[in-house]
Amino acid sequence: MTETNALVLTEVRGRIGCITLNRARALNALSLEMVRELMAALLTWRDDPQVLAVALRGSNKEGVFGALCAGGDIRFLHQAGSTGNPQLEDFFTEEYALNHLIHHYPKPYIAFMDGIVMGGGMGISQGASARIVTERTKMAMPETAIGLFPDVGGGYFLSRCPGRAGEWLALTGDTIGAGDAIALNLADGFVPSGRLAEIWEGLATQAFTDGAAVQQWIDAQLGTAETHLSVHQTAIDRIFALPTVAAIVAALEAEGSNWALATVATLRKRSPLMLHVVLEQMRRARAMGLSDDLRMERDMVRHCFYLRPGQSETVEGIRALAVDKDHAPRWNPARIEDVQDADWQAFFASPWPAYAHPLAGLAD
């Protein structure tokens, strides 16, 4: 195993490549260094016939498990976006390439999605062949709260949720638990958190003959969990299918239920501009393969920082949440009703010709 002060711990146990995210104080938020270490390990094990499968877990301040990953390192994004640090570009290009590799990994990839699994944490787990949730799982793509959008392939995997749950999750950033994650095809099965260590050890000590045997064994460990979303699913499918953000907000206000009014209140706190961008992202991504979606998201994230110099919604959103912590972002435009079509449409014009795109080499 790598030294214990490393942010990513990797070792081969039995015939399993084991990864532990080891940045507990930051809820395992991904830095560029961590992205690179993950990519290096996965590429090495992909080509190593002794490694039959890969298992990923996080750590918390008390030990392993408890939190997978809270997302990307948003303090770095704020610093880099404010100062013109070119590593900002490297971070997103390499993170999205890592997400693509995980979705197309030729060996079983087992993600222990315990505790907080948000943003970039979803990016390194949604492509897994076994997505394991527990009673502690808190899953979300909360990017509209910081003036961003559900990236890391979020357009691809959220738009494929049943009905219009993808639009709901993408726009609101609401958090769901294990049962709803399974119901929405964002997880494969439930394991009580008390069994995680036993299963992790089982992966390392079982005498597996091939990757298929690993997958079969892990699938047999998975159970189900109670869903809480079904009571709202009909309303979600009807309202979040509407063509515009304004129409969605108006319909929620007309609905008048406690859930609908709470949802409106949430949307009113999000970046109005990015709500429009995200709705279009979901609609486009539903018809895209993963590679095209990641290329689109790479275009979008470039625009989040550079389309409006000095007026980045993302820099402002992170400032309000994580830097100054005043929780009073100054969104521009300030109201959903003030966003013009040209404002959000600009996010979908690629800054690169196709042959020069940073993710030109991705294929499905």
TrEMBL record:
One of its GO terms (biological process) is L-valine catabolic process. Keywords: Hydrolase, Isomerase. This is Enoyl-CoA hydratase/isomerase family protein. InterPro entries: ClpP/crotonase-like_dom_sf (IPR029045), ECH_dom (IPR045004), HIBYL-CoA-H (IPR032259). GO terms for molecular function: 3-hydroxyisobutyryl-CoA hydrolase activity; isomerase activity. It comes from the Bacteria. Residues 16-348 form the Enoyl-CoA hydratase/isomerase domain.
